[in-house]
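Sample A.
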Amino acid sequence: MTVFKEQSEMPPKPQRPGAEDREMLRQAALLTRDLHRPSPAIYWSDCFGSAAIGYAALLGAMVSHHAALTTALVLLSILTLYRAVLFIHEITHLDHRLLPGFRIAWNIGVGAPLLLPSFLYEGIHAVHHSRAHYGTERDPEYLPLAHMRPWTLPLFTLAALAMPFLLLLRFGILGPLSWAVPPLRRLIVERFSALEVNPAYRRPAPQGDFALRWRWQEAAASMAAIALIATTALGIVPLRAFGLYCAVLAGVALLNQTRTLVAHLWENEGGQLSLTDQYRDSTNVPPAFPGMLWAPVGLRFHALHHLLPRLPYHSLRHAHRRLAAALPRDSAYGEANYPSLTMLLRRLTRATMGRHSSRSARAGSARATRHA
């Protein structure tokens, strides 16, 4: 049985992992040692079945003349393509010898058409999982959102709506141009080649085999972006169809940005954390519905993923059940389990509001002291 925190309960401050935490790590590895092999049948059918449904729904919306049907098809396309897109997360963790061809097929069938090639995330996500970098200013996927001003949250979320136009600009115009302009190329690589949260992050130039994968993935996405821009400009693709494509991309980005808001507690202010403290700063939302819609491909078990990052997504639910049943109710494992997306959003909002109120109170007190 999963034990959830009470909504009013605040988690303890991160501590050095003690004997209980070391035991949790040992038990987690022991209880899940038979769950680490990815199932090719599940990966291929889930990912590309979702993509096929998403593309079919998008095409259906483009030819539909009924507002209600168009809306329903757009929503279906967003949900299914969002699921297919999130396999980019699995690609960063997979042992590709166990799933040969999957990364190439994903980039051709999902990454390039949706302007989200996997190089945007590969390498970046590994830094986020690093014990030395997680939650620090060097982490590309972390900001101390719980300690920032309240307006940061809606701005952070709604910025996702600009994603289609930024991707078209990146791959359709600036990317191809940058190959002939070295200073622009350096800027593109450092600042516009990562799916990041931290705006201060600067990406290093790719090396070795990864540089080769980067080049062909970028070329494929650029060809897709240029073709879309050109055919729309020439009137071959109707503006309505172009708009629906952008709406679906924006919907995918908005869903993912909302999920990102609750993937962590965002309470670390730059200090280095242990693996167990990374776990405590992350979240599990075990209920399958509606979690399977807003956090598919295992991402509703994000804290468990930080504990056991090599587990394939289809094993996370089984692993969670085993750990929740085997570990004591008051163990560190239960500290990261939450009942819903809504509860986590309220918690994060209260944290920013409380922080802002405290700052305002201190500022008012200082002003009163100066005028006394």
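Sample B, a different protein:
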Amino acid sequence: MIALPTRSGKPDSVLAKAVDLARSVVLEAADGDEVGEHLGAYAEGERVVTHHFACTTPGYPGWHWSVTLTRAKRGKDLTVNEVVLLPGDEAIVAPAWVPYKERLQPGDLSPGDLLPVEDEDPRLVPTYLVGDDPLDDDDRAQVRRVAQELGLGRVRTLSREGLDMAAERWHAGSGGPDAPLAKSAPDQCWSCGFLVRLNGSLADRFGVCANGNANDDGRVVTVDHGCGAHSEVKLARKQQPLPMPEHAFDTLTDDDLESL
């Protein structure tokens, strides 16, 4: 047996020696050919020791059986706390769980799908909070009810954090200055006649492409983005298509062909 000290100190000697008891507990949960050698014991706390046994089950390399034992002070009776199968450092395990909402990507929503926004979403603030006149809680609730009943505008609007997150995402995306399309463009969007500027605080950095022939048509682009469909782009003489030759006039007739 290999005793492995931990931050909790040296394992309790009585519990550390109870290898046979720990193995018998594992054999109640697994077949004999699924339990390998004893890998050691270490202290979980005062008079609490965990034994590890190698797992030989096919498909579980790097896993081990873990049995935790404990006893009362000056007591001789040992108690089994738990027995579990755990992965080691080199075990093959499933990736960490990511909630469905966080796994969604643009384009994943289908017709009829709903993606509700949390009440405390930092990207949004109540519209009635935007302004110079702060309201107390009762007044805010009243204004919100009245606005909803009368249909007066949006209940929430973008916060400063929401605007910054959108700006960072658009700048780093396919409509930003570092996109391959922009790197090879003859000019930037700020001088293109098809750029429709956004309103508000993002107007000096972003716009929407309105060129139906461009890859970014209908998408947000940075003013320093660009593409080959710029409104002022001109083809150099060497880039222009070669003129087609004149049509050949065929003087032969069907009779002439037959006489040949």
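Observation for Sample B: The CA atoms of residues 254 and 260 lie 10 Å apart.
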